[in-house]
Amino acid sequence: MPFDIYDFTSLTQWIDTSLNDRLSPFWAVVAEMAIVGLLILVFYALIGLFLVYAERKVCAFMQNRLGPNRVGPFGIFQTVADLIKLLLVELVPIRNADKFLFNVAPFIVIIASFMAISAIPFAKGLHAIDLNIGVFYVIAVSALGVIGVLLAGWSSNNKYSLIGAMRSGAQIVSYELSVGLSLITVIILAGTMQLSEIVQAQSTGWFIFRGHIPAFIAFVIFLIASTAETNRGPFDLAEAESELTAGFHTEYSGIKFAFFFLAEYMNMFIVASIAATVFLGGWMPFHIGSWEAFNHVMDFIPPFIWYLMKTFFIIFLMMWFKWTFPRLRIDQLLTLEWKYLLPINLVNVVFMAFIVLMGWHF
Amino acid sequence: MEEHLKNSVTDGQEEYVLNIGPQHPSTHGVLRLVASLRGEIVTNIEPHIGYIHRGIEKMCESLTYPQIIHLTDRMDYLSAHINNEAVCLNVEKALEIDIPDRIKVIRTIMAELTRIQSHQLFWATFGMDLGGLTCFFYGLRDREKVLDIFEETCGGRMIVSYNCPGGLMHDIHPGFQKRVKEFIEYFRKTLPEYDQLLTGNVIFRERTMGIGKLTLGEAIAHGITGPTARASGFSCDVRKKEPYSAYDRIKFNEVLFTEGDTYHRYLVRMDEMRQSMDIIEQLIDNIPEGPYAVKMKPIIRLPEGEYYQRVETARGELGVYIISDGNKNPYRVKFRSPNFVNLSVLNMLSKGFKIADLIAISGSLDLIIPDIDR
Amino acid sequence: MSADNFNLEESIRSFDGDAIVTEGKQFTEITVHPEKLMALAMFLRDNSEMGFDFPACVSGVDYGNDLGVVYHLRSTKHNRTIVVKTRVSDRQNPVMESVTPVWPGAEYHEREIFDLFGIRFTNHPDLRRLFLDNSDGYPLRKDYSDDVNIVTK
Amino acid sequence: MRSIVKYISEVLSGVWSLLKGMKVTGSYFFRPSAIVTQKYPENRKDLVMFERFKGEVIMPHNENNEHRCTGCGICEINCPNGTIEVITKTIITPEGKKKRAIDKHIYRLSMCSFCALCVKTCPSNALAFSQEFEHAVFDRSKLIKISNKPGSQLMKGVE
Predict the structure, then answer these.
(1) Could you give the count of Cα atoms lying within 13 Å of C17 in the half-sphere of its Cβ?
(2) Mutate which of A57, A59, A61, A347 to test chain D, going by most D C-beta atoms within 10 A?
(3) How confident is the model at residue C152 (pLDDT cuts 50, 70, 90)?
(4) Which of A34, B43, B58, B127 is the one with CA 20 to 30 A from A222?
(5) Start-end ranges of CATH 1.10.645.10 in chain B?
(6) How far apart are CA C102 and CA C44, in angstroms?
(7) How much is the average pLDDT of B75-89?
(8) Which helix (H) or strand (E) holds B370?
(9) Is the alpha carbon torsion for A352, A354, A357, A361 positive or negative?
(10) Residue A26 binned pLDDT confidence (cut-offs 50, 70, 90)
């Protein structure tokens, strides 16, 4: 297998053994955790900053604008400058807020996204934890963030925030179903919930191609539902700046606001990487049947790049949605879920199970 | 007032009172709507206005007629030219001056350009109210081109002050016709994009269809005019009913629908942009030669009496009611501004709908707050 | 505008003998006593020959001694406009009947007149100051003075 | 059955309408030539305002430091906001006649509403609009400008 040259398993195993040689097992685990934590933190910050910049540029180009162009060449340091500003600005104290919950809410949101990112396979062997129920874990953990949103809305003691938080609650509860069911469609095909196994199973072809129409429908539903779950437009009802000014984070300022802001982009990254992993083959390169030369060239692109390319493609799609569509109303949002996505999804699961039973997939 | 808010309790349930405005992204100015909610359902809306009340009517009483005109720009700043025209027509009617055709035609072209740019901004902000931010930029991008035409000829972009009693401040710029034709050609190409982006969009249709229905009877009884009324089937276009300037010699359709909901209020404006382009195309090549202004006396005194002139601005009927006592200053000026009247149905329309619908309805009424407050 | 309403004057006179009907420069003008305003309003709206169902403009006017209200009414059926004028001479406590039950569109206009002229309209559903929440005086009256904000040359 | 067909066609037509909107934004994304943003402070040099642009009221002077203002005060009368104040003095012409001339022509930019009545009504065309559009200052008193330059005189032949 040519892409073994990019296998990170040996690297991680070497780090593991050398640490265990020098330290007691307990401290070796602590050191490993520290390294992983640090790496994820750095990765998180970099991806967050990049995504904010990318979103601004994408929306600017779609709107015939230049976007950020002042700080650095093409404004690439704009988000860094914004981050520094957000770190320095005053944290406005809210007199009648529930102080403890108000302060803890941004951390809940950001920790939830941290936890989710740890289970994602970036490349072969480049994987913080490879749980055997990886898909399930990611769905469960990423849904925790809404608790933070709800707490933020409640504790701000602001009417706009409360309405935004309640909308967010209703939204997450319903769209979690669609996210789960659309992933189940693929799990039926893959026969496993372990993310690394799911990626491996796609070495002969991505699930979106292997699973015929049901996999494609599941992919579309997953895109819609995950856009809704991350509170992004056209489902950004929790913020809804033309109705609720800023929704649940109306009262937040400075770094606490930055946490919400960053978490929104990271959640988008997480759902995009799940979509890339589950439907588009994760870090697997793109292969076409018997085109050996083509496939060989594709293999030399590192898997990490493949992974990022797929993820950013999906992120671009989500940005494209946001900057094209008007926002839905809360009842339409629920109608879309309960009257359209859920029934289609259920039929789709049965359809997929049937295909798998008959062995009609590739 | 605050007393009233505290006591707003109905059938044992306390209402959730939400203060939308005076600073809010979608009130388009300093309008304050005190919304009583049950859940997300609006039970009552109470508009509080007057945040930019400047007393234009009082100021007019101490100004001469040419001086009044530039104040009217500041009422409905998106229909500035049409507002100017209203006062000028009223003064000219009172003095019984014959206006040369050239002035009439230029005024009409300018008025229709004003209508187009006003509806472009409506489209832009309406899209933004519904959450489609990209509409805002496309709308403003195209509006810039009209504003450039204004700037080249009038010297101002929004606040044009181009009319004066007896004619125009100066002649049209030599490049005016070319620029207008270029704009029409450009806008005929971009207008279908508006439809693709918003009009046909399934989310947009769901958001606006059947929301905030205004019946024909209600529209008439409440004195609603303009696109808002025409969406309900009330044929009230002053350009047709009581033609002024050059409207009596051109062919155009009055856009009428009968549904009266938010979607059709939007559609009326989209179609009016097309009608306005047709009107301009009929006139732009046939601007008659002649003077751009009639020689007026240095001090204009209206004969004693009362004068009422109405024109069709982008939002409805603007009535200018002047009572003159023969002096160089009017005795009393009343502006019957379309937005002021249209605001009065907001409560009626939005009862029973959700907050998001309230934003859509108030967006579709296309309120300009300085025109309400005057 | 007023050429076709040959029977307008007659029918209004027959309805209310005290009403003064004159031909203005633009429109037919009816001057009516405030007490009879409401009855006239009902007549103007409901009589099929009249059909003045559209309240175009309601303006307050300070005539010096009197305070008046001018109603520009339009008939959507016949496309003609009529002016109804009424005035009260009590400047301290001017009271008039509201025409809001007849033309709901007059509601905001009457609130504005109450705010700026101080004319109180009885039977008005929601008579509060419209623009000037916390101020005294009625600025559009001719005798209003405000040394701070009104600068005269 | 019909309701199922209706359901499916609704879904498909809805998706199609969404795709049409995405086509518009997507096509602009790949067309950077459609960008209309101007980089303002950088393009100051080639930023040309229209000749009729109403920047601020100025009094044009010729190369001999002469203006056309006779100090008649018509602009002051015509200004609706009291923006202009004309202060005149009496000078003695070389022929020995007493004559009115301007001492100061004060223009308060902060009160100007750009109605152009002063420029239009000036009987000797002494006033004009400049193309200046950067009016921001840190001190409000800087907005009170004196239009006539120091030492300037009335142009010959203007009465």
Answers:
(1) 0
(2) A61
(3) low
(4) B127
(5) 56-348
(6) 10
(7) 88
(8) helix B369-373
(9) negative
(10) confident
pLDDT tens per residue, range A309-319? 888 888 888 88
Chain B positions touching D116 (Cβ under 8 A) are: 155, 161, 169
Q: What is the tally of structural domains in chain C?
A: 1
Q: What is the mean pLDDT of residues C73-91?
A: 84
Measured from the Cβ of residue B211, the count of other Cβ atoms closer than 10 Å reads 22
Q: Is D41 in CB contact (< 8 Å) with chain A? A: no
Residue of D4, D25, D40 to mutate, testing the A interface (most A Cβ within 10 Å of its Cβ): D25
Return the pLDDT at B6: 47
What percentage of residues in chain D have a pLDDT greater than 90? Answer: 1
- CA D137 remoteness from chain centre: 16
Question: Cα(A283)–Cα(A264) distance, rounded to whole angstroms?
Answer: 24
**pLDDT tens-digit readout, B319-342:** 888 888 888 888 888 888 888 888
The pLDDT value recorded for residue D159 is 67
Confidence of residue A5 (pLDDT cuts 50, 70, 90): low
Range of the domain at C81: 3-90
Confidence of residue B8 (pLDDT cuts 50, 70, 90): very low
Reference A157, options A240, A239, A245, A251; nearest CA is A251
Question: Does A touch C (3+ CB pairs < 8 Å)?
Answer: no
| CA-based nearest residue in chain A for residue D25 | A62
CATH number at residue C66: 3.30.460.80
* Among B201, B356, B357, beta carbon nearest to A325: B201
pLDDT digits (tens, 9 = 90+) for D28-62: 888 888 888 888 888 888 888 888 888 888 888 88
Q: Are strands C95-97 and C120-122 parallel, antiparallel or unpaired?
A: parallel
Residue C131 included in any domain: no
Helix axes B355-365, B101-129, angle to 10 degrees: 170
Give this prediction's pTM. Answer: 0.87
Second CATH level (architecture) for the domain D57-154? 2-Layer Sandwich (3.30)
Within a domain: residue C13? yes
Sort out which chain C residues have CB atoms less than 8 A from B321's CB and list them. Answer: 57, 59, 70, 72
Tens digits of residue pLDDT in C104-121? 888 888 888 888 888 888
**Sorting pLDDT into bands at 50, 70 and 90, what band is A35?**
confident
Helical residues (DSSP H) of B24-132, grouped into ranges: 56-60, 65-72, 80-95, 101-129
Report the CATH number of the B56-348 domain.
1.10.645.10
User: A and B: touch, per 3+ CB pairs < 8 A?
Assistant: yes
How many residues appear in chain D?
159
CB B94 within 8 A of CB B322: yes
CA angle B365, B368, B373 (to 5 degrees): 120
Least confident of A302-306, C51-55, D24-28, D131-135: A302-306
Q: Residue D120: its chain B contacts at CB < 8 A?
A: 164, 169
Report residue C42 as tokens.
């009902």
Q: How far is CA B220 from CA B128, B235, D80, in A?
A: 30, 10, 38
User: Degrees (nearest 5) of the Cα angle A106, A325, B359?
Assistant: 75
In angstroms, rounded to a whole number, what is the distance separating the alpha carbons of residues A209 and A224?
19
User: Tokens standing for B121?
Assistant: 């901004």
Higher pLDDT among residues D95 and A324, named by residue: A324
Q: Which residue has the tokens 């588009």?
A: A280
**Region class of C93: left (phi > 0), else alpha (psi between -120 and 50), else beta:** beta
C-chain CB neighbours of B62 within 8 Å are 152
Q: Does residue C75 lie in a domain region?
A: yes
Q: What length does chain C have?
A: 153
List the Cα angle D47/D50/D56 in 5-degree steps: 95
Which tokens hold the place of C63? 């005539």
Give, as one character, the DSSP assignment of residue D95: T
Nearest to D113 among B70, B134, B196 (CB): B70
